[in-house]
Amino acid sequence: MKEKMFELYKKMFLIREFEFLLEDYFSKGLLRGTTHSCIGQEAVAVSVLDYVDINKDYVTSTHRGHGHFLAITGEVFGLASEIMGKRTGVVSGLGGSQHLQYKNFYTNGITGGMIPVGVGIALAKKLKGEEGIVISFLGDGAMNEGYVMEALNMAKVYEVPIMFVLENNCYAMSSITKDLTGSLFEHRVKGFGLKYVYEEAIDVLNLWQKFGEIYREVSNNRRPVFVECRTYRFCGHSKSDKREYVLKEEEVFWRQNDPLLLLRNRVVKELGEDGVEKIEAKIREEIRGAFEKAERESELALDEFERRYGC
After folding, report:
1. What b/e sequence results for 262-277 when a residue is b if at least 16 CB atoms lie within 10 Å of its CB, and e otherwise?
2. Per the domain annotation, does 145 fall within a domain?
3. How far is the C-alpha of 184 from the C-alpha of 225, rounded, in Å?
4. Collapsing DSSP states into helix, strand and coil, what is residue 238?
5. How many degrees, rounded to 5, is the angle at CA 253 between CA 175 and CA 281?
6. In a domain, 310, yes or no
7. What is the residue range of 163's domain?
8. Contacts of 120 (CB under 8 A, 6+ apart)
């Protein structure tokens, strides 16, 4: 368990430091398009995706998907290059922050847009008798999209092997989720007949164990499960968001219960402050080096685009 704790902390720290540096690069005008950071939400990404075999499982993510991507791949250079619009990006600089693809990992920028896709992939797996499951992430804002509700219904009707992971960070766009939601998400989900699980994304090791149980359940039973994770983001929805709408008491609570810092305290007890700082310095150096290398790369030339994609 100690080694797993160290591993999860490294992944969480990598994601947060990547997002911090990404915001710095955005402020300097070095990125293509906007970005949506997941600072504060790292626990969910590393906990569920630690179990994924990306060669047989599928993962669909959201516009806030950097943490999911890094938790699976660790491809710092490829992601940094992509967001800078460079040819060395994971999709040759053509997708940017919101449209990523790596093996069986897919995302796009439409709110909840990948949920119907995830259900379709899971149905295909069932019809073909293939191994593996689908993990589909969504945010609380997506729960007010009609096609998401339709997809949840279809997942239950056809009993497909999919795990829905709702990252409820309490705020959709620039508004408080509860002010724009007529009922609890639990009631909606159970109304479709789906199994519903609620988790607080605070204790990372506990969350990791719970997701392991759910992953095995979906894999073995080949039926859908919906998991709502209460989490929080310490950054705005996007770069123009100043977060004036954030409730002070929620901000105070999550600052005091930041999953990354709580896990860090546990790691410090095992490795000491110096040991943890050495790990963190190495990760920061890796990220900084990847960004600086990406800066020096070129964009995809038209002739190379034609050779790669035949158009």
Report:
1. ebbebbeeebeeeebe
2. yes
3. 17
4. coil
5. 100
6. no
7. 2-304
8. none
**pLDDT for res 302:** 62
- pLDDT tens-digit series, residues 18-33: 999 999 988 888 888 8
Distances (CA, A) of 299 to 28, 76, 81, 91, 296: 18, 18, 9, 12, 10
Q: Cα separation of 282 and 284, whole Å? A: 5
State the Cα–Cα distance between residues 68 and 135, nearest whole angstrom: 11
Of 177, 178, 278, 167, nearest to 227 by C-alpha is 167
239 CB-contact burial (10 Å; exposed 0-12 / middle 13-18 / buried 19+): middle
Q: Is residue 109 part of a domain?
A: yes
CA separation for the pair 224, 206 (Å, rounded) = 22
Count the Cβ atoms, other than its own, within 10 Å of residue 132. 17
- CB-based contacts of 35, cutoff 8 Å, min separation 6: 22, 23, 26, 66, 83, 97, 238, 239
Give domain status of residue 92, yes or no.
yes
Domain total of the chain: 1
94-148 pLDDT tens trace = 899 999 999 999 999 999 999 999 999 999 999 999 999 999 999 998 999 999 9
Q: What pLDDT, in 10s, does the model give residues 38-97?
A: 999 999 999 999 999 999 999 999 999 999 999 999 999 999 999 999 999 999 998 999
Question: Taking 80 as the threshold, does the pLDDT of residue 300 lie above it?
Answer: no
The domain that contains 48 carries what CATH number? 3.40.50.970
Pairing type for strands 171-172 and 162-168 reads unpaired
Instruction: Quote the tokens at residue 148.
Output: 């998401």
- Could you tell me which residues are beta bridge partners of residue 164? 136, 226
**Single-letter amino acid code for the residue at 25:** Y
